[in-house]
Amino acid sequence: MASEFTMRVWRGDLSGGEFKDYRVEAQEGMVVLDVIHTIQATQAPDLAVRWNCKAGKCGSCSAEINGKPRLLCMTRMNLFEPGETITISPIKTFPLLRDLVTDVSFNYEKAKKIPALKLKAKEADGTRRMYQDDVDRVQEFHKCIECFLCQDVCHVIRDHEDNKPEFAGPRSFVRLASLEMHPLDEEDRREFLKGDAGLGYCNITKCCTEVCPEGIHITDNAIIPLKERVVDAYYDPVVWLMNKLTGK
Amino acid sequence: MSDQAVAVNRGGPTDKTLRIDAWWVEPAVTVGMLSTFLIYTTWAALVNEHYYVAPYLSPFYSPCLSTSCAHVTLGLFDWPLSPAILILWAPAGFRLTCYYYRKAYYRSFWMSPPACAVRDGHAQYSGETRFPLLMQNLHRYFFYAATLVVLFLWWDALLAFRFPTTDGGSEFGLGLGTLVLIANAAFLSLYSFSCHSCRHLCGGGLDVLSQSPLRLKLWRQVSRLNENHMLFAWISLVGVMLTDVYVRFISMGYISDVRFF
Ligand code: SF4
Ligand code: SF4
Ligand code: FES
Ligand code: FES
Prior knowledge:
The complex is a heterodimer of chains A (248) and B (261). Chain A has helices at residues 32-42, 105-112, 132-139, 149-153, 155-158, 170-180, 190-194, 207-211, 218-235, 237-246, and strands at residues 3-13, 16-26, 62-65, 68-71, 85-89, 96-98, 101-102. Chain A is an alpha+beta fold and 248 residues long. In chain A, a hairpin with a 2-residue loop joins strand 1 (3-13) and strand 2 (16-26). Chain A is elongated and about 70 Å long. Chain B is globular. In chain B, the strands form two sheets. A two-stranded antiparallel sheet of chain B has the order 1-2. Chain B is built from nine helices and four strands. Helices cover 52% and strands 4% of the residues of chain B. Chain B starts with a helix and ends in a 10-residue tail after the last helix. Chain B has one domain (23-252). The chains are: A alpha+beta (248), B mainly alpha (261). Chains A and B meet through strand 1, strand 2, helix 3, helix 5 and helix 8 of A and helix 1, helix 4 and helix 7 of B. The structure holds iron/sulfur cluster (2 copies) and FE2/S2 (inorganic) cluster (2 copies). One FE2/S2 (inorganic) cluster binds at residues 51-54, 56-61, 71, 73 of chain A. Residues 153-154, 156, 170, 202-208, 219, 223 of chain A line the site of one iron/sulfur cluster.
């Protein structure tokens, strides 16, 4: 059964823009991305939208739907009442290229700075072993599809452009957690976390977790455990004293 | 409200938010609940009366460390003010620096941000990088102190089985208040042991958990509890307040305790 909707889509670029309304019929089973494609096919062939997989796996189609950061391809039209006006805007934190497409290179620049995996020495028999118990925890972080919705929603940079140089953002913390908790890694990233990555800017208000389409517990399983590790290194007076006494 | 977000032109809409759902309900309810608790607790801690009715001691006054207490747990010295002040800093600091409550009050009281994808209420933001918020990093010390207090609450729950008799002695019994004190200690224990710092100390700080089977087991248990930390935070908050109300009302003669045997 088809239902009609008004799609209020942002059109424009850095020099300016506005919302434009398109009346579209959505067929049963359609997702928002399908409706955007219908608009492209029938009313606005120049509407820019980034997408690849239409399966929630490539992380390209991030946008804000009625003000909430979401994947266009994973938001079903039956979430909305027929006749409703649905607002589609580009993700807010990054500079707009055109319409729904933003320049997300900030995130790649941040990724380049993360200290890479540094493997421990091999065991006596020339191998390295990992146990499932140790791998379980980091596996969650590998589900990340780099949609950058968490980066988009994070108020530290969304609402404070001036924090961008100092703050790596939740996506980076997920990556950092996967490396820092890796059973075969011997790099210590705590100084980086406290300094260049700006972990202290996060006030654990959990919006990143709320929007993550992969359901990664970004705050509870990555950010807070990393904060606790930074406390070990810098803010725990007893550990500090012990290290002083033992000359560590 | 600041417009710093649009100071740098990123293109796109500049509205404070485009959300159309009732995003303000959650922060409003949080402000209401936390304010009620704060006002009641401050009053109850300062009045310095009606906190003990044998054999029940209000959790706000436990452990009672002053020799002038209506029920002395450990008489260390004579303290002229309310003995609650001597100990309440521990649970108060524990909750104030708790990772969950931080989320709750940063969002609701400080509006930083009030809800996801709703503009931050402040022009400048440095998060927890500077004093005083840098002190949030001491959370684990409040965990130690508050856990000690919880142990005393279990002791109080045990003492709540020992009822005074008319001849000045005591007898074993069970009242509704006993159950209230046990439930209170249990909820507070769930809250304490689901703490993120506890999770880290139990094993979260290790990279190779498989080498420390005991800590792996502990970490798994605490992780399971930790998933419900927010729930325990609220249940134990309401619970401890109601426990005080229960003891207070009996002591003031508004209600009488139900004695099962
Ligand atoms: S929890 Fe931290 S990283 Fe995640 S959105 Fe909030 S401030 Fe940003
Ligand atoms: S952590 Fe989640 S929200 Fe962030 S980029 Fe990865 S998949 Fe997207
Ligand atoms: S198109 Fe790949 S995640 Fe939406
Ligand atoms: S008590 Fe909430 S995180 Fe420690």
